[in-house]
Amino acid sequence: MLDRFAALVRRFYSEPKGPIPLHAPVFAGKEKEYLCRCVDTTFVSSVGEYVTRFEDMLREFSGAAAAVAVVNGTCGLTAALGLVGVRPGEVVLTQALTFVATANAVRHAGAEPVFLDSDPDTLGMSPDALRAFLDAKAESGPDGPRLRADGRRIAACLPMHVLGHACRIREIAALCQEWRIPLVEDAAEALGSTLDGRHLGLFGRIGVLSFNGNKTVTTGGGGMLLTNDPELGARAKRLTATAKRPHPWEFFHDETAWNYRMPNVNAALGCAQMERIEDILADKRDVAAAYREFFANEADMEFVDQPEGCRSNFWLCSVRAGSRAARDAMLEWTNAHGIATRPLWRLMTDLPMYAGNAGDDLDAAREAVERVVSLPSGPRWGKRP
Ligand SMILES: *Cc1c(COP(=O)(O)O)cnc(C)c1O
Known about the structure:
The chain has twelve helices and 16 strands. By secondary structure, the protein is α+β, with helices and mostly antiparallel strands. The chain has two domains: 2-26 and 277-374, Alpha-Beta Complex (Aspartate Aminotransferase, domain 1), CATH 3.90.1150.10; 31-274, Aspartate Aminotransferase, domain 2, CATH 3.40.640.10. Pyridoxal-5'-phosphate is lined by residues 72-74, 98-99, 101-102, 160, 186, 188-189, 210, 212, 223.
């Protein structure tokens, strides 16, 4: 099986012998032209035409009321949590199966993450686990729910859309509404993914995208806040850009704010990439279709497909092995043969700084970590065979 799998990947990426990365960007548009323009005009930093243009492109593409470009996804999450009212000493409910940035952002906002289990099908936060946690451990207060045990306020809920697939966000949003918990979506992996036609990140107060080098679209480093609330969007723009009152020469800042602005050079890359977003997504979905077909005939490996109603970007195409041993065999063989494959992240509660923060048993998340392998999934656009 592994031999045939390797042949498929090599044929697909037109790479007969060399290494095949997990997800490398393809710069087949106007990236160089736009970058040169930044240098030629000297607008390389926090002022420049590309930042606004990139925000406009994302707003239109996602259908959000506002899009605010920031330096990276992690800072974007930190800012989003602050913007919805998370304060030091409070608690944020999130999931154990995620990239470490989700948890770090909660701590950067001064709060403590509580890690809940995943839904076995979508791998994202389980609404059942969320409901069970709230019923057992929370009580309503005047400013939202608090933990019964110590009275700390539950200041936000932060689910993550794993691998670009939608989590059960509608059920999570309904629970958040019922309990009056602000919902922030870690949609870092989900650019171009929708659920029932709505872009992920737009089911709560704020959603956060990442444009790191391994994501679907890259700006080198970067992120984007998306929101349906234009006022919140305007506040996000102010607070991620030093809260300076507009004035031709005065420096008057009226709040303690972040400097999380995306530089113009990064936005330039993003504009060129976004001009090709439909090609990139189409290509990644072709990759997914090839894997789906291949693994349909393999007994020990199941393709991790998009959930019902979700049109996924297939950020990282993945398979679920029948056993941990089968997973390990696949990781070892493919990486030894130049084909980059990766396990999911270690559960946050298995990392030393978050070991004490489990909110429930995390059985489904642990099972997924032991079984799932991500496969080469980058776009081939511009180098089709
Ligand atoms: C990539 C990623 C982030 C943020 O990434 P940055 O590298 O800071 O842009 C956050 N959460 C998840 C789940 C991610 O995959």
